[in-house]
Design a protein that fits this description.
Elements lengths: L2 H17 L3 E5 L5 H7 L8 E6 L3 H8 L3 H7 L4 H15 L3 E7 L15 E7 L2 E7 L5 H22 L8
Parallel strand pairs: 1-2, 1-3
Antiparallel strand pairs: 3-4, 4-5
Helix pairs in contact: 1-2, 1-6
């Protein structure tokens, strides 16, 4: 596990335990790496409820409640899908917050409209979800590493700046 990811996970853990809040994950292209960073920190069971590696669309739909129509209309690698993944993970695990990813890690699978290296990240609470789009192909493993670190960093920033009614969707 990359030290930077664990360092951010430690900060997230301290904050969430202090607030009595919980976290879950819904990952596609990051393959559980966010959950792995979180659980690498001793004591994570006090706030981390679990995660889903929803690699196939069917899993996103059945377990997380992502709409089939959402995937068909916007593509699986989209802002709309990761927002539904966050909301679905919060429902599934009964958590206050969730982090979700969906993307094209490569080296194959990219299209003209969604090139390799495109990853959508969503994080937050139901009704207060923020998103971020990563772009640029660094190679499969670096794409996943970058998206994982970025997701944790963005979620940490979200927690620090969270004010009711101030979150963008």
């Amino acid at each position: 596990m990359v030290g930077h990811e664990v360092m951010i996970a430690e900060k997230i853990q301290t904050f969430l335990i202090g607030q009595g809040r919980t976290l879950s994950t819904a990952e596609s292209c990051t393959g559980g790496r966010i959950a792995s960073a979180v659980t690498a920190v001793s004591g994570s069971s006090a706030y981390f409820q679990g995660g889903v590696v929803a690699y196939q669309n069917k899993v996103k739909e059945i377990l997380l409640g992502v709409g089939h129509d959402t995937i068909a209309r916007f593509d699986v690698v989209s802002r709309e899908v990761v927002v539904e993944m966050v909301e679905g993970a919060c429902r599934l695990f009964g958590t206050d917050y969730a982090i979700a990813t969906s993307g094209c890690a490569g080296p194959g699978g990219g299209t003209e409209s969604i090139p390799v290296g495109t990853v959508w990240i969503a994080f937050g609470a139901p009704g207060k979800v923020r998103t971020f789009k990563c772009e640029g192909d660094r190679g499969r493993v670096p794409n996943v590493e970058f998206a994982t670190a970025k997701a944790l960093e963005l979620f940490w920033d979200y927690l620090l700046s969270e004010e009711p009614g101030q979150c963008e969707t």
